[in-house]
Amino acid sequence: VQLQASGGGLVQAGGSLRLSCAASGTIFSLNAMGWYRQAPGKQREWVATITRDGSTNYADSVKGRFTISRDNAKNTVYLQMNSLKPEDKAVYYCNARPPLNYWGKGTQVTVSS
């Protein structure tokens, strides 16, 4: 099982980051994929979903700022994050939607005010 998120970093408020997640072929081809995040001291929360046919859905907190996409040839899902806010600071994970019991390594996103 592979769910490897990357692309996080430190950015100023208003800036952008693009996250990537390489997933195992079986997971990617059979499932909708999602991005999730966990802020310090909080529970992990869902951020965005993309189905196998490309339909997308977003949490209200990121709607209009974040864009999820997928490259089926590369078994990779992306999260373009624009207009970042300090409250977007979290560790970001990808997983199937609904999520599997296994969570891979996340990627840290820090937004300075």
Describe this structure in words.
The model has no long low-confidence stretch (mean pLDDT 96). The chain has 1 helix and 10 strands; from the N terminus they run E-E-E-H-E-E-E-E-E-E-E. By secondary structure, the chain is mainly beta. It has one helix at 25-30, and strands at residues 3-6, 9-12, 17-23, 32-38, 45-50, 56-58, 66-71, 76-81, 90-97, 107-112. The protein has a 6-stranded mixed β-sheet. The radius of gyration is 13 Å and the shape is globular. It starts with a strand and ends with a strand.
Give the topology, please.
Elements lengths: L2 E4 L2 E4 L4 E7 L1 H6 L1 E7 L6 E6 L5 E3 L7 E6 L4 E6 L8 E8 L9 E6 L1
Parallel strand pairs: 2-10
Antiparallel strand pairs: 1-3, 3-8, 4-5, 4-9, 5-6, 7-8, 9-10
The coarse silhouette is globular
Biggest beta sheet summary: 6 strands, mixed
Poorly predicted parts: none
> Strand order across the biggest sheet?
2-10-9-4-5-6
Q: Please indicate the percent range of residues in DSSP E strands (runs of 2 or more).
A: over 45%
The radius of gyration over CA amounts to 13 Å
Task: Write the element-wise H/E pattern from the N-terminal end onward.
Answer: EEEHEEEEEEE
- Structural class computed from helices and strand pairing: mainly beta
Mean pLDDT: 96
Distance between the termini: 37 Å
Number of strands: 10
Helix-residue proportion: under 10%
Helical region count?
1
